[in-house]
Amino acid sequence: MASKSYYLLVDWNGDGDFADTGEVITDRVLSITTERGRQSGNDLTSKSVAGKLSAIINNESGDYSPFNSSSGLYGNLLPGRLVKLVLGNGGEFAYTFPFDFTDTPIWSGYLESITPVVSVNTINTVKLTAIGALGMIARKQVQIATQASKRTDELISTILTSAGWDSNDSDLETGQTTVNAYWNSGTSALEAIREIEDTEAGFVYETKDGKLKFEDRNFRLTSDKSRVSFLTLSDASTPDYPYERIAQRDPLPSIYNDFRANIRVISTGSIATLWTHPETGSASPLIEAGKTNVYWAQYPQPTDGTFASSIAGQVAAMAWTTPVATTDVVMNTAADGSGSNITSDLTIGAVKYSNSMKVSLTNGNAADGYITALKARGTTVVSSDATMIVAEDSDSQDKYLKRTYRSAPKWLPTSAEAQNWTSTRLAIYKDPLPQLHIGWVANKSENTLHAALHLDISQRVTVVAANNAGLGINEDFIVERIQHSISQGGKLHDVAFDLSPVSAAAGFFTLDTSLLGASTRLWY
Q1: Residue 178: enclosing H or E segment and its boundaries?
Q2: Is the pTM of this model over 0.85?
Q3: In angstroms, rounded to a whole number, what is the distance separating the alpha carbons of residues 443 and 232?
Q4: How far apart, in Å, are the Cα atoms of 165 and each of 136, 197, 381?
Q5: 25-65, pLDDT tens digit by residue?
Q6: Which of 93, 135, 299, 455 lies in disulfide reach of 443, CB 3.0 to 4.6 Å?
Q7: Percent of residues in the chain assigned helix, strand, coil, to nearest 5
Q8: Which residues contact residue 99 at a Cβ distance below 8 angstroms, ignoring those fewer than 6 apart?
Q9: Nearest to residue 348, comparing CAs of 384, 377, 383?
Q10: Could you give phi then psi for residue 102, rounded to 5 degrees?
């Protein structure tokens, strides 16, 4: 295999490594594009989206045709296989730095599809598409029983566990907000995580090595990654780290001068019967000897045949009690209850969610049994009427009209935290902020490759655009989005970054971290 400046790896057999035959496919690659991070440089309205890798692969051999039984990869061209793009140490466009960058990851994710493209005039190819961790999480549904007094990072961990996500594939900073009561009645894991991300005012994204990263709201104020500029990208005549193109995004859509947040007080009721199975008497359900029946208890009762959802201001979730033989469940050899009571031969299992409980009943008796009584008890969790907290700026509204931010967080625990949430965002976003899109050819020089490969999401970088660019900008920014494009067999490696300004939060300080007096507003 020829020496390359990069390597594309696919774990075709799913054994967790890339050491098997055909798993290094670099020599077949015609082009690769990758992206990860936010949709744009707006760190308020733009969430991190599922990363994507798209590669065009030479398929003259037919190795990557899923229905080609003569391929050595036949049966292994399956979605969910690990995919990784790394920098290799060697080749015409690889450089020797003062640090070890061997196998520096650029992008990591999971195979989504392989689509053959047959050509008469040129070579046959396939398009290989892979998605990042957020894309995988978005496909997982979760239901989570009531969680009391949990930090935001603990809740995200619970959501990921419910989705079957390996804890080794996540990196969670300690959250600053403790949610009084949390539940989930059935959403995608990603939607659930988004709610917690908003409540914390934090950030969830994919790392280079494919992990899910959660930054608490203090991370960019306290971490050296975001507090100290990694390097300076400049339009000066002979900069150490030049760029070739730069664009300033329209700042007006990112102005908000009216922030609103709701809080609700949560209270827990006494234990009570929340659900009763409706079939009794001659209609009592039969459980054959040695068999298992499954029942779903739900509360409050749904009106459309689906699981009940949270109802604000009413019963919103509950803590279920595992059914007890005789008290909650009775089994008899006769449907009308006139036979032998064989309840003691029941094995009862329960899986508890927020607004539902899955009850499994196994008949351990030699005779068939009828469930003549079945109920589910629990404690209700009641949400009070909502209290709205508002922060607005009249000067900004006079200049830019009233602009209301409507994606309010769902789980803020107190009015004091809601006030902090609205006030800090108002202070940042009531005025225009520069957002930049910047790019260059990565393998043009040692320094341009160094910058391309080692600038990471949430990393601080200085941008000078006051010379040839004429933007009048000389300040620090945070990396929000990263794109790589490799073509011509690796001879052309282009990169692009979307950046948000550090200046927005620079006026805040955190206790025991920031220099008191250098900043005038206290972050919460």
Answers
A1: strand 178-188
A2: yes
A3: 18
A4: 9, 17, 28
A5: 999 999 999 999 998 888 888 899 999 999 999 999 999 99
A6: 93
A7: 20, 40, 40
A8: none
A9: 377
A10: -55, 130
In which residue are the tokens 């660019």 written? Answer: 469
> Position of tokens 């920031």?
514
Task: Assign 3-class secondary structure to 405-445.
Answer: ECCCCCCCCCHHHHHHHHHHHHHHHCCCCCCEEEEEEHHHC
* Count of all residues that appear for the chain in the document: 524
Number of helices (H) and strands (E) in the chain: give both, helices first. Answer: 9, 30
**DSSP 8-state secondary structure symbol assigned to residue 302:** P
What's the CA gap between 90 and 2, in Å, rounded? 10
DSSP one-letter string for 132-194: -HHHHHTT-EEEEEEEEEEEHHHHHHHHHHHTT--GGGEEEPPPS-EEEEEEEEEEEHHHHHH
Tokens of 173: 């900073």
Token digits for 78? 């399956």
Closest CA to 365 of 285, 294, 290: 290
Whether the CB-CB separation of 261 and 422 falls below 8 Å is answered with: yes
CA 2 to chain centre: 37
Lowest mean pLDDT among 167-176, 299-308, 420-429: 299-308
Tell me the one-letter amino acid at 59.
Answer: N
Structure tokens at 286: 């039969």
* pLDDT digit string, tens, across residues 144-181: 888 889 999 999 999 999 999 999 999 999 999 999 98
Q: Locate tokens 């892979």: which residue?
A: 130
**Looking at the predicted structure, is the pLDDT value of residue 140 above 70?**
yes
